[in-house]
Design goal:
Elements (H helix, E strand, L loop, with lengths): L2 H4 L5 H28 L6 H8 L4 H7 L2 H24 L8 H21 L3 H13 L3 H26 L6 H19 L1 H8 L6 H45 L2
Helix pairs in contact: 2-3, 2-4, 2-5, 2-7, 4-5, 5-6, 5-8, 6-8, 6-9, 6-11, 8-9, 9-11
């Protein structure tokens, strides 16, 4: 041991090792997302994952403890990544009491999620992985459902209710929000179908912008239609209540 090492002058080395470890861990998660989503958990071998990540096969056990724990880490990565996109609008801002402000928040949330899901470079592997978990649920599905799907869906229901006057906990509101999310996710799942049917060479920035704009128009049209329904129901209640009020006023 030389004098520098003895007195701690060589301290930067651990930091370099930590950075290298973080890169390896991230590469393994990226490889896991791709192979678990594309081939399924059983078909994706640890050797294949390590090779895809450019890492030693023992690094999976070292960083995660095993293949199942890597799968769970992939799910946690999906949750953290999408929440980073969604939370600035959905969680860090209060649900507006004013319908117009709620509409603006809903539009902004839909815009951010659509941009990420349709154009985000990670979104393809995320969606593939989630679809596998939906079809064959494991602990990873619980992580995604509890940390992302339930949280985002519940918040969107609250915003939708504030914008329309609907009940946030009603089945109608829940289904409507699922419908809004579904039309965005479709363009990622059926990307190749859309490209071929539209006659596009690719789904580049111009095409993505057209999809996002159209999807947002659909969201706003659905919101406006729902407001009309709620207004009509309220008017009907008022009409039905009027005769009862007159009877109560009679001596």
């Amino acid at each position: 041991m030389n004098g520098q090492e003895a007195n701690g002058a060589a301290a930067p080395a651990p930091a370099e090792k930590a950075t290298s470890a973080e890169r390896t861990r991230a590469a393994l998660i990226e490889a896991g997302l791709k192979l678990f989503g594309g081939k399924g958990f059983a078909a994706a071998s640890t050797r294949e994952i390590a090779t895809e990540a450019g890492a030693n096969i023992g690094s999976i056990a070292y960083h995660f403890g095993g293949k199942e724990q890597l799968r769970d880490a992939c799910a946690q990565h999906i949750v953290a990544s999408i929440r980073t996109v969604a939370d600035p609008v959905l969680q860090r801002l209060p649900v507006p009491a004013d319908p117009a402000a709620a509409e603006t928040q809903l539009r902004l949330a839909a815009q951010r999620m659509a941009g990420f899901m349709i154009a985000g470079p990670q979104a393809a592997d995320f969606v593939q992985f989630i679809l596998r978990e939906v079809q064959q649920p494991t602990k990873a599905f619980d992580i995604i459902y509890e940390g992302l799907i339930e949280v985002v869906h519940r918040r969107l229901c609250l915003i939708w209710a504030a914008a329309t006057g609907d009940d946030a906990d009603s089945e109608e509101t829940s289904i409507m929000v699922f419908t809004l999310i579904g039309q965005i996710v479709y363009f990622r799942i059926a990307r190749e179908v859309v490209i071929r049917r539209m006659g596009w060479r690719e789904m580049g920035p111009a095409q993505v912008q057209l999809i996002v704009t159209t999807a947002l128009d659909n969201v706003m049209a659905a919101l406006a239609a729902r407001r009309e329904v709620m207004a009509a129901r309220e008017a009907q209640r008022g009409t039905m209540a009027a005769p009862e009020a007159r009877r109560e006023r009679k001596p």
